[in-house]
From TrEMBL:
Residues 1-24 form the signal peptide. Residues 325-456 form the Alpha-L-arabinofuranosidase B arabinose-binding domain. This is AbfB domain-containing protein. GO terms for biological process: L-arabinose metabolic process. It comes from Streptomyces chartreusis. Pfam families: AbfB (PF05270). GO terms for molecular function: alpha-L-arabinofuranosidase activity.
Length: 462
């Protein structure tokens, strides 16, 4: 079950013209906190919310706000949510500060122009933004300051990683760290170059786990995203992964990472060479990655963003250790039913046999892999799990793999009272019906998929 002509890059365009496009990880409800401790499915009645604020492929003068409950299916929260009072807005990086406000920092000019400032704006609700100021990055002979990325360290310090070039070679970028010297984020330390990453790297994004800083950075010569580690945010870094080490391909930029509810990490990056925005997952602390997949809905529209993750109120609530039946959200006469160990969606009614009603009744229990998630038992005590992406019931094997296969995370469905069930170990894959059979399929971002994957918990048939 292992998964495996567009507007060109701004750097590519600049190079063509000479021949004649690290961050805060907000986990749980603790702004600025990094690490893995808060990676878990949201508790009943709460939900996960991921927010991005990308500039547009068609317009670098404004940004949209999108949100998602699974880091895969992003929906528009507000179009043209922020337009700066002058200049442009590209590469917007987002984080939530300890003061409760959301902040973005961004590139202030388009790729053709000299750009010595980075912009800042603030919002109380993610969709209404107020311009704060443009900050001139204090580097001698600065030509361009691009792609500022928030990075909140484990000590609570707020930093911006910005890629800068100088007038002696305006296309050769070096990553620098700026540290906020006040809580209002209006004063900054002198820039410090990230030692070991060096020149000709751009879009550097930092993640810290334990005592290790992990840097994901684009090599502008090879066009691959490289990987480096250090014990200090400014280095020295050791670049240990180069070329196509993760299978993401070349002509990729704007890496941004976020931790998922199952503890894995997801990287997003802009495949500007083929006009696709991608994501890829790692569950072994960045050693290996799933095959890159196109991000539904926003791919081809959104450009270069980072992600804020929060736990918010108002998510699905379902009691555990009770029996329920599950009604299709869009075929309301049909219900989950086990048939020869497989989960199908036949019509069930008051005239159905006792055996059919019993086969359509399930016990809801705490998730085998995560107690905040959910698992489901049939009347024989077997658990619902996915196998070859088919939903079926099997005896608990007592293994970690079985526990993950049999755990689902509750996401809000489309019909009133409905829930969508996301696979715990295949994020972005949902229980959905197809030809009245239940499968675990990757979301395609369409309304039909959301409807086919929505089920209403109702009083049990038996």
């Amino acid at each position: 079950m292992t998964r495996r002509p567009h507007t060109p890059s701004r750097r590519t365009l600049l190079r063509a013209m000479t021949a004649l496009p690290a961050s805060a990880l907000i986990l749980g409800e603790a702004p600025g906190l990094l690490g893995t401790a808060l990676a878990a499915a949201p508790p009943s009645g709460s939900g996960t919310r991921y927010t991005i604020v990308p500039f547009l492929n068609s317009n670098d003068g404004t940004v949209n706000v999108y949100q998602s409950d699974d880091a895969t299916d992003f929906r528009l929260a507000r179009a043209s949510a922020y337009t700066p009072p002058s200049n442009r807005i590209r590469d917007a990086s987002l984080f939530k500060h300890t003061d409760g406000y959301y902040y973005i920092t961004y590139t202030t000019h388009t790729w053709q122009d000299t750009s010595t400032t980075i912009g800042f704006a603030r919002s109380a609700d993610r969709v209404n933004w107020t311009f704060l100021y443009d900050y001139t990055v204090p580097i001698a002979a600065l030509s361009r300051a691009w792609a500022p990325e928030w990075f909140v360290d484990s000590d609570g310090s707020v930093n911006v990683i910005v890629s800068c070039s100088t007038t002696d070679d305006e296309w050769i970028f070096t990553p620098y760290l700026l540290r906020a010297t006040n809580s209002a984020l209006t004063a900054w330390s002198s820039p410090v170059a990230l030692s070991g990453i060096g020149k000709n790297h751009i879009d550097t994004f930092l993640v810290k786990t334990g005592t290790t800083y992990h840097a994901f950075t684009k090599n502008e010569t090879t066009k691959y995203i490289e990987y480096a580690t250090a014990t200090s945010p400014t280095g020295p870094y050791t670049i240990s992964r180069t070329g196509d080490w993760a299978g993401w391909g070349s002509y990729r930029e704007g890496p941004a990472l976020v931790q998922l509810d199952n503890g894995g990490w997801r990287i997003f990056f802009d495949g500007y060479g083929d006009g696709t925005y991608y994501y890829s997952d790692s569950h072994d602390t960045f050693a290996t990655w799933s095959a890159p997949a196109a991000l539904p809905a926003v791919s081809g529209t959104a450009r270069h963003f980072t992600v804020v993750k929060e736990t918010v109120s108002g998510g699905p609530a379902l009691a555990k250790n009770v029996t329920r039946s599950f009604q299709s959200g869009n075929y309301t006469t049909r219900y989950w039913q086990t048939q020869s160990s497989l989960l199908n969606l036949p019509v069930v009614s008051g005239s159905s046999t006792t055996a059919e009603k019993q086969a359509s009744t399930f016990t809801v229990v705490a998730g085998l892999a995560d107690a905040n998630g959910y698992s489901f038992r049939d009347s024989s005590g077997k658990y619902l799990r996915h196998y070859d992406f088919r939903a079926r019931f099997d005896t608990d094997a007592g293994t970690s793999t079985f526990a993950k296969d049999a755990t689902f995370i509750a996401r809000t469905g489309t019909a009133t009272g409905s829930i969508r069930w996301e696979s715990y170990n295949y994020p972005g894959h949902y229980l959905r019906h197809y030809n009245y059979q239940l499968r675990v399929d990757r979301t395609d971002g369409t309304d039909l998929f959301r409807q086919d994957s929505s089920f209403v918990p109702v009083t049990s048939w038996a």
